[in-house]
């Protein structure tokens, strides 16, 4: 029987707000005689470290913030023993839960030749208004809005933020749209050059590492953060956060202006509460362009 091996990814922590990460695409094996396909042979990139035990096995230190991994056991004082170790571990433990809302930009003019001219359509502006109203209706104290620097994401952010007065906005290039990793199965209508996966994939992986992780140990209260970006970026982030095979990102579909809700617990466990929710929009306002 044909089978495939999931790409093993192990996240490494980032020291700053961005990083250049070496990223490799997955090649699909050629069919053998008899119709079966050769199994995938995946060479993990150098930054991946040791492979996880296998598909379906949760890596509790996926964000490199597991307390035991942050304590230098070699410097442990043998006289104080377990009490000191317990104290140091408690100092490194996250105490708060992070609620991460990933918003896809609204419908935009896809035929414009220049990125700056790919502005929102009239329907797109309506969608952003509806998304802003929905977020405001949740009654949450949002901490910040981080958004892609692309025109359609900036315009979507400007409309949504009117419904969330006082919430600061931060622009970043890390969340710009791109090709995160070669999808499996491949699609015939979208085939970027290999170099695009290499360049965009490194940037989008850096965005994941920089923004998706458990709360800092100093954070005392639960946080509610909004990230306004693009379908490919959101789909890849969801797969990585749930430790699903990341090359399956294109199997997910997201409407314009949709809300995806990830929860990262203090112990590092991740839950997906909503994926591409547009139930708050009338049917005639829903699109996926």
From TrEMBL:
Tagged with keyword Mitochondrion: yes
SUPFAM superfamilies assigned to the protein according to its UniProt record, in alphabetical order: Phosphoglycerate mutase-like
EC identifiers of the protein: 3.1.3.16
Gene Ontology CC, one term: mitochondrial outer membrane
Alphabetical keyword list: Hydrolase, Membrane, Mitochondrion, Mitochondrion outer membrane, Necrosis
Reaction(s) this enzyme catalyzes, per UniProt: O-phospho-L-threonyl-[protein] + H2O = L-threonyl-[protein] + phosphate; O-phospho-L-seryl-[protein] + H2O = L-seryl-[protein] + phosphate
Pfam family, one: His_Phos_1
Any one of the GO BP annotations: negative regulation of cold-induced thermogenesis
GO terms, molecular function: protein serine/threonine phosphatase activity
Subunit structure: Dimer. Forms a ternary complex with NFE2L2 and KEAP1. Interacts with BCL2L1 and MAP3K5. Upon TNF-induced necrosis, forms in complex with RIPK1, RIPK3 and MLKL; the formation of this complex leads to PGAM5 phosphorylation. Isoform 2, but not isoform 1, interacts with DNM1L; this interaction leads to DNM1L dephosphorylation and activation and eventually to mitochondria fragmentation.
Family: Belongs to the phosphoglycerate mutase family. BPG-dependent PGAM subfamily.
Record's function text: Mitochondrial serine/threonine phosphatase that dephosphorylates various substrates and thus plays a role in different biological processes including cellular senescence or mitophagy. Modulates cellular senescence by regulating mitochondrial dynamics. Mechanistically, participates in mitochondrial fission through dephosphorylating DNM1L/DRP1. Additionally, dephosphorylates MFN2 in a stress-sensitive manner and consequently protects it from ubiquitination and degradation to promote mitochondrial network formation.
Protein name: Serine/threonine-protein phosphatase PGAM5, mitochondrial
Organism expressing this protein natively: Capra hircus
Originating gene: PGAM5
């Amino acid at each position: 029987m044909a089978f495939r091996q999931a790409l093993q990814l192990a996240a490494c922590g980032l020291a700053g707000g961005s990083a250049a990460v070496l990223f490799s695409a997955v090649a699909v094996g050629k069919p053998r005689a008899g119709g079966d396909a050769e199994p995938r042979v995946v060479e993990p990139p150098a930054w991946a470290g040791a492979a996880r035990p296998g598909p379906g096995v949760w890596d509790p230190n996926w964000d490199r913030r597991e307390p035991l991994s942050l304590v230098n056991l070699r410097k442990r004082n043998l006289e104080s023993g377990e009490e000191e170790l317990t104290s140091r571990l408690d100092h490194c433990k996250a105490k708060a839960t992070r609620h991460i809302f990933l918003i896809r930009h609204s419908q935009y003019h896809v035929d414009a030749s220049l990125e700056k001219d790919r502005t929102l359509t009239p329907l797109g502006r309506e969608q952003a208004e509806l998304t802003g109203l929905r977020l405001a209706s949740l009654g949450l104290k949002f901490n910040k809005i981080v958004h892609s620097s692309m025109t359609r994401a900036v315009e979507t952010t400007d409309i949504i933020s009117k419904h969330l007065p006082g919430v600061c906005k931060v622009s970043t290039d890390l969340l710009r749209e791109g090709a995160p990793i070669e999808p499996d199965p491949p699609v015939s209508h979208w085939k970027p050059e290999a170099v695009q996966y290499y360049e965009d994939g490194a940037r989008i992986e850096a965005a994941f590492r920089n923004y998706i992780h458990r709360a800092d140990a100093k954070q005392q209260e639960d946080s509610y953060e909004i990230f306004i970006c693009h379908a490919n970026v959101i789909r890849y982030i969801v797969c990585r956060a749930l430790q699903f095979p990341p090359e399956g990102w294109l199997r997910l579909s997201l409407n314009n202006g949709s809300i995806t809700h990830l929860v990262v617990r203090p112990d590092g466990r991740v839950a997906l509460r909503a994926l591409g929710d547009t139930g708050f929009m009338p049917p005639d306002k829903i699109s996926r362009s």
